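DM from R.C. (forwarded with permission)

"hey, sorry to bug you on a friday — could you get me a structure for this? deadline for the figure draft is monday and I only need the backbone to look sensible"
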Amino acid sequence: MSEPIRLGHIGLTFHEASAVEVAQILERHGHTVSFASAPHEKAFDLLAQGEVDLLASAWLPSSHDTYLNPLLDQVEKVTVLYEPYCIWGVPDYVSESDVASVSDLLREPALGRMERLIQGINPGAGISRFSAAMIGAYELDAAGYEFRTGDEAACFDRFEAAVAEGRWVVVPLWHPQFLHNRYNIRALEEPKGLLGTKDQATLVVRKDAVDKIGPDAMTELRNLYVGNAKLSAMEDNLRKAQSN
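My reply, with the result:
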């Protein structure tokens, strides 16, 4: 019997969905897989302390390099699972002619119709760090806009409730993400470049776990690619299954 493998992921459902894909490969090669999840920075702490063998995944370079860089001598970058990027999005019923860019939030008709609360997820997320900086950089606070961190439900449920009622709302989001599988969400132009670049969601493994995983499983992991659209759908399916 192959050795058990400890697989870490950031405690959000789309990270869980990608971890499930990784686990399926490990299990095909005879491993028993246990999962460990934690908020963003704490998930990298688990990797650093050897409490997990792999992490699915690190978004590099924009979002998670600050967490992974201190560990580069301990880990190997295995494969790019998908190419995530951050956005500020609005529902597609908010016309592009009315609100095309972040700066348009300071003009009519957005001033009269857009909700001022921009509800995010936990503070360690790249999108949260980027969004907090954008409030000041675009002087949105002067018009009453506020970015607030919270849990997944605070962000996602609020967006879905707003769409159900046809309200104008900005959601700080990313691709891939399950809401894109349910709604057409239009990204606002962000000319200051504060939302980072398109990242590479990279599966990382501790170097001291490579032999335990084995050459055949490592070869298959190095060839694993999921892609944004598939992962958005996978996360949506996972969330629906968990709610039943």
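R.C.: lifesaver. The beta strands are 5-10, 33-38, 54-60, 75-82, 85-91, 117-119, 146-148, 171-175, 185-187, 200-206.
me: no worries. The chain has ten helices and ten strands.
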